[in-house]
Amino acid sequence: MKLLNGPKTPVILQLLRWITSPMPYMEACAKRYGDIFALRLYKKSLPLVMVSNPQALQQILTNDTKEFAAPGDLNLLFEPLLGKRSVITISGAEHQRQRQLLMPPFHGERMRSYSQIIIDITEKVISQYQIDQPFNVRSATQAITLRVMMQAVFGLDEGPRAEKLQQFLADLLEKGSSRLNVALLYLPALQRDFGPINLWGKQMRRQQEADQLIYEEIRERREQNLSGTDILSLLMAARDEAGQPMTDEELRDELMTLLVAGHETTATAIAWALYWIHKLPSVRQKLLQELDRLGDELDPNAIFKLPYLNAVCSETLRIYPVAMLTFPRVVTTPVTLGGYELEPGTPVIGSIYLTHQREDLYPEPKQFKPERFLERQFSPYEYLPFGGGARRCIGLAFAQLEMKLALAKILSSVELELVDNGEVRPQRRGLVTGPDRPIQMVIKSQRQVKPRILQKSTV
Ligand code: HEM
Q: What is the mean pLDDT of the chain?
């Protein structure tokens, strides 16, 4: 039996490197120790086993195996923001039930009804930018995805409460993604309110303000007996086996989870896609040809099925996956993984980033090449931007739809250019990743041949 390898540096140094530069650290470890290795981030717990071997990933993530569980209490890092009753922080049968409640709006007809919302909001946001005025792409895409999520989750886009909540959430996530705030998440001993100058205290107060608005919205819906087709209405109408509705705390935690998990990730993905499309002229040209071929009848259904657009989105999520990692799993019974024996209680995590950087799967992995996805198919354990198994991303189809429609709408409306052609690299942004500097772009002109997007959603 092989001995599990990993860095021998003191625990605190491993944790610091993990907080400040997780991707270079993972790459350095994989180079030295292979595609299964162990990091020691905390003194008292077992080492964290990091996996980027597709067979081992399959063993971990396949649902029917009883060797690994995906308990929510391993996701404590998310608890300060998402709460104790979020789908991300709960476990076992309760987790399964809650997933089933949350999934219907992200499937089939219900999800398709968001097509028009996505297109309209993208148009509104883009029209706010002036020709020749540089703007930060991530701010623009974040404005789009936040408004889309507000609509999908609350049925709210405009109005004072929606605007206030959008502002709070944008603020909360912006401040929360600083390295210092991430360090606070990893070091719970510092999560105390020491008064008005205290970082943690400030973050918690911002959050309380956002919570208050969410609770107000829930109360108002109850009092006025309002219902709609949005996710909040659906969750308020749901009853468990005992006929009980969700409590306000449960509702708040799920709404916050969807807002947070759903908008920042997709905003970053669309921003990266715009970066690559405009950095590589041949990619942009092929994409425009494909979009223009749709001609006047450019409808959401057709956009969703475009092969090159699909390949561009897939490659965007391969090269710099917004989520570097799956949520951790834990060994439940003695198990052999890739030749290593693991004892019960060992935390195991899938490194999406390292898997997507494997040379044997993706030759020249640092090059952006959408063609990879036209030339071959990858298994769900070779390409996994949305994770897999019991905690696979609930918003997968929604995120793909939003990426494709927003990109198609932007590219067919305006001629964009990068302000400078320098390299942008990924870095930690809170618990996910993002560009290491602002990606500045500028609108050069409105597009002349503007394909018409059908008003009726038919995806
Ligand atoms: C490009 C965009 C997105 C990416 C890259 C992404 C990625 C991921 C990943 C890697 C996981 C963990 C999967 C695992 O551990 O196996 C996850 C979970 C999750 N995602 Fe996403 N996601 C995206 C967009 C969204 C959207 C739009 C929503 C909701 C509207 C969403 C909601 C969730 C939820 C609720 C979970 C937790 C599921 C659970 O614990 O059972 N995500 N996502």
A: 87
- Residue 221 maps to a domain: yes
Tell me the pLDDT tens digit for each residue of 385-406. 999 999 999 999 999 999 999 9
Angle among Cα 268, 270, 272 to the nearest 5 degrees reads 70
Q: Identify the residue whose C-alpha is closest to ligand 1 atom 35.
A: 394
Residue 245: what pLDDT?
85
Residue 459 lies in a domain: no
The SS3 assignment for 57 reads helix
| Domain tally, the chain | 1
By the 10 Å C-beta count (0-12 exposed, 13-18 middle, 19+ buried), 178 is classed as: middle
Domain hosting 415: range is 11-446
SS3 337: strand
Q: Which atom of ligand 1 is closest in space to residue 387's alpha carbon?
A: 16
The answer to whether 393 is a known ligand-binding residue is: yes
- Reading the block at residue 78, the tokens are 């998310």
What is the position in ligand 1's atom list of the atom closest to the CA of 352?
10
Instruction: Give start and end residues of each alpha helix (H) in 280-340.
Output: 281-293, 300-305, 307-319
Ligand 1 centroid–CA 395 distance in Å is 6
- How many Cβ atoms from other residues are within 10 Å of residue 12's Cβ? 13
Judged by average pLDDT, the poorest of 131-145, 177-191, 321-335 is: 177-191
CATH number at residue 82: 1.10.630.10
- With the most atoms of ligand 1 within 8 angstroms of its CB, the residue from 118, 141, 320, 393 to mutate is 393
Rounded CA separation 27/7 (Å): 12
